[in-house]
């Protein structure tokens, strides 16, 4: 089950300690987990590396302007 993207959930240190394995599982599923002390965020639990990354998965989703590598007209004096 993937959690929907939303505001990061904050847990105090004692809660995080008691629910650590659950928080790790939730972080692996995409939820942003923040551990705080006295309402001050201290650490974020995140997976190492990119989860479910597939080479080429963004193919066709990235577009660049035709003149992307053209020198702007107002830069002629610098060339």
Task: Write a brief caption for the model.
The protein is of the alpha+beta class. 19% of the residues lie in helices and 19% in strands.
Structural description of this entry:
The protein has a domain at 1-46: 3-Layer(aba) Sandwich (YefM-like fold), CATH 3.40.1620. 1% of the residues are buried. The mean pLDDT is 85. The chain has 79 residues and is an alpha+beta fold. The chain has a three-stranded mixed sheet. A hairpin with a 2-residue loop joins strand 2 (33-37) and strand 3 (40-45). It starts with 8 loop residues before the first strand and ends in a 34-residue tail after the last strand. It has two helices and three strands.
CATH C-level class of one domain is Alpha Beta
Count of DSSP-assigned helices: 2
Principal-axes shape call: elongated
- In CATH, the topology of one domain is named YefM-like fold
**Cα gyration radius (Å):** 21 Å
Taking the alpha carbons of the first and last residues, their distance comes to 55 Å
Largest sheet: 3 strands, mixed
Helix- and strand-based class?
Answer: alpha+beta
Strand order of the largest sheet: 1-2-3
Strand content: 15-25%
- Average pLDDT works out at 85
Helical content stands at 10-25%
- The name of the CATH superfamily of one domain reads YefM-like domain
**How many beta-strand runs?**
3
Order of helices and strands: EHHEE
């Amino acid at each position: 089950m993937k959690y929907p993207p939303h505001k990061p959930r904050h847990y105090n240190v004692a809660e995080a300690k008691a629910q650590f394995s659950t928080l790790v599982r939730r972080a692996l599923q995409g939820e942003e987990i923040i551990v705080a002390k006295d309402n001050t965020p201290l650490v974020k639990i995140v997976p190492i590396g990119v989860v479910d990354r597939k080479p080429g998965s963004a193919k066709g989703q990235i577009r660049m302007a035709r003149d992307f590598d053209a020198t702007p007209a107002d830069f002629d004096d610098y060339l």
